[in-house]
Amino acid sequence: MNPFYLIPHTPEPYFCDRKKETEDLVHFLENGQNVTLIAPRRYGKTGLIYHVFDKLAKKKGRMELFYVDIYATSSVDDFIAVFAESIAKVLKKKSLVKSFLKFLSRIRPVISQDPFSGEPKFSFTLDTDADRRYSLKTLLDYLEHRPTKVIVAIDEFQQIREYDGMSMEALLRTYIQPLTNVQFIFSGSRKHMMSEMFTYEKSPFYESASLYYLDKIDRVVYASFIKEQFEKEKKHITEDAIDYILEWTRCHTFYTQSLCNRVFSNVRKEASIVNVFMAADALLSENYETFLERRSLLTPRQWKFLIAVAKEGIVNEPTGAAFLQKYNLGAPSTVSRLLSALTEKELLLETKSLEGSSYCVYNVFLSRWLERLG
Ligand SMILES: Nc1ncnc2c1ncn2[C@@H]1O[C@H](COP(=O)(O)OP(=O)(O)OP(=O)(O)O)[C@@H](O)[C@H]1O
Ligand SMILES: [Mg+2]
Predict the structure, then answer these.
(1) Are residues 226 and 309 in the same domain?
(2) Dihedral angle computed from the Cα positions of residues 133, 135, 138 and 143, in that order, rounded to the nearest 10 degrees
């Protein structure tokens, strides 16, 4: 059994740390506060939400917990369907779907079954904005009238800003605000957009949730977690191998888990640093095609810039003469456009601090691959 999970819903013994974060989120929710969870992609937001749900489920004062992933939605109509499906999925386990459908009959859902998962799929006839408003309100009304407290986690929340037509932000805010039985976790990776949604005075969600920034897992804690996981499964990993894993993957959860998973599966008893080198190489070669795919979506200048950032690891002054000359990147005036294009495409990750912004290649494997290029 490989103890390094690669899916967000990681069971307790295989879930690394996040003790304080879990406690904080549970505390917010138990005290009636909505939470906005923000972190770069693949740090572990979704994993943390599931972990918090597992904790809440074990508590005495029972709550109903709904997880809604709106990553793939592009309209209010999609949102409504996905929201209904997420509710049905939880109720199915409790044989409550029938009463839910009865409640929904006023918005006339068409229900089919997903051929792969067997879960119910919903579609609604939403001809007018009034239909949309009414449907959304109906779904929230249903949750508001549940006999137990309800928590709804909306993952990839920034997506609602991409919807065409009516302002989903304003609409959601209008219906969410008066609810007393339902609380929310809004989670997203677009830091700028997410914080703007919750801290900008003119945004509908202004100050309606506590902002919570999720950082990387602490390196020392991660190191002992990795060691323990090997040992629990009667294998061993050397200290320098662990160090190298955490350095090479920059403690970025998904990448660290992936490399650990591979090293673990490759060794029978003892993992040394050489096993780590080989596993890392294998992961990069397997991703070769996707990296080339990325390249095809960029201009040569963007690609060159990305390589330069990868070779540096972190760039604190991307418009500084030292960096531009070292990699022959042209004038500072053109760099800001490159930076914003690459950040927008989620190829560069911008980290802001009091000293200013720094940049690194967002995808750690891509970064490690690029830095090897001649
Ligand atoms: N605390 C943890 N312990 C062990 N593994 C974890 C932990 N948190 C996350 N992971 C692993 O890292 C992977 C990425 O985490 P997750 O999907 O939660 O990130 P995310 O921030 O939601 O990313 P995205 O923005 O891409 O949705 C998960 O698939 C899971 O395998
Ligand atoms: Mg996620």
Answers:
(1) no
(2) -100
